[in-house]
Structure formats: structure tokens, C-alpha cells
Amino acid sequence: MQFHKYHGLGNDYIVIDPEDAGDSLAPEIVKTICHRNYGIGADGILFGPFATQRADFGVRIFNPDGSEAEKSGNGLRIFTRYLWDMGMVDDNPFTIETVGGVVQAKVHTETGLISVDMGTASFNAADIPVNGVQGEVLRQTMKIGDQELTYCAVTVGNPHCVIVCDEISKEMAVSLGSAIENDPKFPNRTNVQFMKAIDRSNIAIEIWERGAGYTLASGSSASASAAVARRLGLCGSSITVHMPGGTLDIIVKHDYSVRLTGPASKIAIGVIASELLNSTDSGPR
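Below the sequence we write its predicted C-alpha cells.
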């Protein structure tokens, strides 16, 4: 089975064409391929393109734990770069269908950057979803261990919990991320961001990604955090999101539709051995 590997600001994905792999990937195969000791190693798999009536291309996005993600900003930029590399698209806008909705993507040939329209952010509890809350989920409180945290929840096609902090750190994300991700108030689990507002045009985030863990960068996390920053009045419409892996430029329009722009870099092309695909030993994660 052939694979193409890319990264977006250190958030790495493997692209697998269904024509090489068949109609689907079993969760155990996804876990094995993504394992950094027993497999190729990745933060997820992009399974596509496939034909769809709703968009120019379709893609399924798998987390390294074998679960399926609704949407991924980095993954969609990477998938766009893959389509460009394969000669399937040019510099005109085109559409991609995900489980979390249809997005529009564009390659900027003059800079090499890629823009993705992520859809419209919603803070409504029923849309995200969040249990036990009605209406917009803004400045709510939750208790994790002995800590009381103030959070906002938002969806950009996938769920996010944004904790606004005076200071942020990797240690904070690692120590609290899993408990927040799996809190019963989030029935579909949630991505988690610890966000610090720097000024009216800049925020910084540390990320715990649902199904993947601590992550250097995330496009949907950057989009969700920027939407929260604007909704709370911390920033305007044009926001640079600083992450350990680098920065993304986000535009949050008046209706909270979100466009992200950033790079996607190629790492390798290879062939996954049949021995790996037939193995049931994905090792400890």
C-alpha cells in the first residue's frame, strides 16, 4: 500500500488513496500505521480522495487511536497539497467533503500557502454538543481534579473546549487535556485548547487533540480559539495564532465563518509492507 506523508507545522498526516487500500481502513490498521514505534508514525490518516456528489473531492480523517474525526484544518491543508502534488487541482478554489461538512480550499501559488474555509463557528451547546448547558457555551465553569476552570465551547465542524488563561504551557495541556477531552459533558469527547490573548491580533495556544494527545499545531484548534477570542472581544477579525509548531493566520468574519491560511510540507512517499498491515500488534500507545 503506497502512502504520502506531510506535515502542517509539525502536525503530521499520512495520505492513503482508497484505490490502493480498498473501501475502508479498520481501526486497528489505523492505530498500527500511526504508531511511532510499530508503524510509520503520524497524528492521523487522510483517506482519500473519493467521489462524492456534494463536493469536488471527499476525504475521511482518522485519529491515531482509530477513531474518525469530523474535520481537521491541518489535515485539509495537507490533503489540498497532496491533490496539488498529484496534479488533481490547480490554483482555482475547489471543495472537499468531510464528515464535518464541505469546505473550500485554495492553493496560493505565489506564496505556497494554502487557505481553507472551515465553515461557521457555533457556540451553541446543542451544535457542539455539550451536556447540561443551554444556549451559547461561553465563560462556563468546570472542575477537573481540584482545579476550577473557566471554558468556552465551540464547533467548527468538530468540538472544541477553549480554556482562556493568563499563562499557558505544554505541561498544562498534558496534565489536564485528557481529563477535559473525556469529561462527561462532552458526549463526543472534545479537542482542548489553552489560550492566551497576546494583543488584539495575536493569541497563543497549547493543544490537546482528541484521539491524538498533545499536538504541536492544529488548524481546527486555531480556528476555534480565534473564534472564541473574537466572540469574547479579545481580538478583532484578523488573528495570528501562535502554536509550538508555528503560526496560522485566521480570519473570523462577522458571522463567525472562519478561513485559515498556512503551510503544508511534504515529508516522504513510501510503501507500507504487507507484514505491517497483517500485524495485530500495534504496541502500547
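The helical segments are 18-21, 27-34, 73-85, 170-181, 219-231, 274-277.
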